[in-house]
Amino acid sequence: MELELRHLRVLCAISDTGGVGRAAAALGYTQPAMSTQLRRIEGLLGEGVFVRSGTGVELTAYGAQIVGRAREILALSDDLTRLRHARSPTGARRLRLGAINTPVVPTLLEVLREACPDLVVSISSVYATGELLGLLEEGELDMGLGCDYPGLPLQHSPELDHRAIRTVPVFVATHAGHPLAHRLEVPLSGLSQDAWFVSADDGVGWPGAFYDACRAAGFTPAVTHEFHVLDQLQAMIAKGLGVAAVQPTVRPIGGVLVKPLAGDPLWQRHLLVWRRDTVEASVVEAVHHHAVRTHWQLLTRAPHFQKWVARAYAPTRPANESRKALPDTV
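^ that's the sequence the OP posted. Answer follows.
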C-alpha cells in the first residue's frame, strides 16, 4: 500500500473537524472504516499523527508537519486539476467572460482572438455588476467586466480579485435642441426640470450615486424612467423625451448631444474581476492589458471626451481647480 491523495484528504479532514467520527461524516465514511483507514495511514508514515483528547483528537508535533505538507500537496493537485479543466479538448484554454453594458466587448474579443489564439472565450451579457459578482462567486463565470463608483468600492469574497481598467467621469446625453445645448459643460442643477432616463439598480451603487449627486446639486428629479437599452434610449432622447447619464464612450446618434457635467459630480470606475482559482495570472494580464488599451482607444474616438480632456488638463487651468487623474488606470 502506498500513500495516496485520498489518504492526505483523510488526515486533513480529521484535523479540520477534530474527530474521527466527524471526519467520517464529512467524507461519507463509516466511523469504523475511517478508524481503520487512519491506522493504515499512520502505519505507512511510521508514527502517530493524532492523539486522543477530551473533545476528540489533536495533532502530534509530527502530525502537524505531516498535515501541513499534505495541505500543500493537495493545493498543488487541485491547481493541476483546475488547469486541466480550464482547457478545451483541443488543449486551448477556456475563459467564461461576463460583461455589463460596456462598449469594449466587440473590440476586446477581436483583439484577444488575435493576441491569444489558444484562449477560447465565451461571452455572457449581464446587466448589473452585482449580478456579475454573484455568477463569479458561484463559479458560473471565470472573469467579468464590471464597474463601481468612487466612495463605493467593490465588495466581494476572497475567492475573487479585481483590477481597475479606468476611472472616467459620467457625461450627460440631451437632445440637440435642449436649452443648455450651447454649453461646453452642462451644470447638473440646470437639468432639474428635465425628465431623466435612469438605469436600474446595479447592486454596487447605482442609481444611488446619481441621486446623491442630484441632491448635492439641490434637486431631486421630478420624473424618472427606468431604461437602459442604448439604441432605444438615444432615440427617445433625440425626440426630447428626457436626458440620461451616459458613459463618455457613447457615440451619439443624430439629434443627440453628449456633454460633460460641470464640475464632474459623477464618476465611474471600470473593472476587471476574476476568480482566483480558475484564471491563470497570464490570462489576467492579457485581458487587463487589452481591456485598458481598447477602452482608451474608444475614448480617443469620442470628440466630446477629447474636448473635455483638452479643457480639464489645459496648462492654463487655474491651480485651485482640480480634477481627478484620468489617463492612467486607477
